[in-house]
Amino acid sequence: MSSQDQYGDIANADLANKGVVRIEWAEREMPVLRGIRERFSEDKPLAGVKILACLHVTTETANLILTLKDGGAEIRLCASNPLSTQDDVAAAMLHVYDVPTWAISGESTETYSRHLAEAIAFGPNITVDDGADLVALLHTDRRDLLTNLIGGTEETTTGITRDKALENEGNLEFPIIGVNDASTKHFFDNRYGTGQSTLDGIIRATNILIAGKTIVVCGYGWCGKGVAMRAQGLGANVIVTEVQPVPALEAVMDGYRVMPIEAAAALGDIFITVTGNRDVITPDAFVHMKDGAILANSGHFDVEVDVKSLREMSELVRDLRPFVQEYVMPDGRGLVVLTEGRAVNLGAAEGHPASVMDMSFANQALAAEYLVNQHQTLENLIYPVPSEIDSEIAMLKLTSMKVSIDRLSEQQEEYLSSWQVGTE
Ligand code: ADE
After folding, report:
1. Which of 56, 89, 192, 197 to mutate to test the pocket of ligand 1 (most atoms within 8 A of CB)?
2. Does 60 contact ligand 1 (Cβ within 6 A)?
3. 44 pLDDT higher than 50
4. Do 226 and 92 fall within a single domain?
5. Model confidence at 6, in pLDDT bands (50, 70, 90)?
6. Which residues are within 8 A (CB) of 413 and not within 5 positions of it... i.e. 6 or more apart?
7. Cβ of 185 below 6 Å from ligand 1
8. For residue 60, how far is its CA from the centre of ligand 1 (angstroms)?
9. CA 377 to centroid of ligand 1, rounded, Å
10. What's the CATH number where 248 sits?
């Protein structure tokens, strides 16, 4: 049963109660966001503000949306990826929490675009993006809605790259807070979140043993660092590929082998792309790969593994398990692609665990409040999350974990702010 009306489009309303229980389960691991939600419920800092969130529709996102709603926002939600929607969560949002929601797991790209178009029609004041699809829509087909905007936030590295391209052209039409670049976001979500959820997705999809495998990690940004670390922790031999010298050098000194993808192609049992760029694994690598090699992407868009060329090169494509397809080459080798080259951590697993999304989404909630309070002082540029907010979130997270830390003494404060004292 599809439940479609002017307030949204979801797969199955009957899943709503299951969604509620899972959303509440995630909330237990989100104490920082919970604290913000309590304050927002009292103070209503977002009263009357129209917010459109285009995010992965997960139990963690649900907790962010409910926080913004309790803060007084008029909120709408649409999916930021055709495969990542948890249908029970979408049902709960629409039918229990009264949040207009457009998200169906496995939706076609046409439905995905229609969902964005329908959700945006109410003219948001703030956009909450994961990958900058709302920003792109507002700067192309829906420029008529730009006048309503006071600002936007961006969750992910890829989205900030797109926003920066607009900013560099001088064409960005509203201020954006780059949530991804907050320390309490990318040091944790990108590293520990992507690290764990990527391996989780590969294991859930395939049930293979990681120990003893050679895993090629393409890209050594914060996500790549996390994936390599967790793969090594499970007993894999890790090879890293990179295009930039500094992260390549870091990977070498972190103890991994570093080489070009064409050399790694013949060695890898599993390939994981986390670069944020296109055409990372192409026919030049496919031709060298072992029979049974597994290809997974954990970057934002499905452009990192050239699945289209792989399909053209193969004689047969067959489903082996949910999210697992084998492409059989004319020479008999089978290359195995997970989640059609879309983000494996969100397609085959549930994305990052709640405890880490707690900090990412605390940044989102406080960035929305900041936009409401400060938008008149902002230009049409990309801004960082203010460092006081970043530090406050880290402190709240530590407190929730019952970890206390030292404080600077007065003498230490003074020492740090003086230049007079040097060699004695
Ligand atoms: N991005 C990565 N993991 C996520 C999650 N669990 N919820 C929302 N967005 C995510």
Report:
1. 56
2. yes
3. yes
4. no
5. low
6. none
7. no
8. 7
9. 31
10. 3.40.50.720
> Of 276, 303, 297, 54, nearest to 162 (Cα)?
276
Q: Which two tokens stand for residue 204?
A: 């859930």
Is the same domain home to 137 and 233? no
Of ligand 1's atoms, which has the minimum distance to the CA of residue 58? 7
Domain that holds residue 308: 194-347
Q: Which atom of ligand 1 has the smallest separation from the CA of 354?
A: 6
Q: Tokens in use for 55?
A: 């995010």
The two structure tokens encoding residue 181: 């670049």
Give me the DSSP letters along 93-113. Answer: HHHTS---EEE-TT--HHHHH
CATH number at residue 79: 3.40.50.1480
The Å distance, Cα 388 to ligand 1 centre, comes to 24
Residues 243 and 146 in one domain: no
Split into its structural domains, the chain has a count of 2
pLDDT digits (tens, 9 = 90+) for 284-339: 999 999 999 999 999 989 999 999 999 999 999 999 999 999 999 999 999 999 99
Please provide the size of the chain in residues.
Answer: 424
Q: Output the DSSP codes for 307-355.
A: HHHHHHH-SEEEEEETTEEEEE-TTS-EEEEEGGGSBHHHHTS-SS-HH
The answer to whether the Cα torsion of 248, 250, 251, 252 is positive or negative is positive
Question: By CB neighbour count within 10 A (0-12 exposed, 13-18 middle, 19+ buried), where does 296 fall?
Answer: buried
Structure tokens at 320: 């082996």
170-228 residue pLDDT tens: 999 999 999 999 999 999 999 999 999 999 999 999 999 999 999 999 999 999 999 99
226 in Cβ contact with 195 (< 8 Å): yes
Residues 102-106: what's their mean pLDDT? 97
Distance 356 CA to ligand 1 centre (A): 9
Does residue 360's CB lie within 6 angstroms of at least one atom of ligand 1?
Answer: no
Tell me if 351 CB under 6 Å of ligand 1: yes
Identify whether the C-beta of residue 110 lies closer than 8 Å to the C-beta of residue 88: no
Model confidence band, residue 265 (pLDDT cutoffs 50, 70, 90) = very high
Q: How far apart are CA 38 and CA 92, in angstroms?
A: 21
Centre of ligand 1 to C-alpha 61, Å, is 7
Nearest CA owner, ligand 1 atom 9: 56
Count CB-CB contacts under 10 A for residue 290: 15
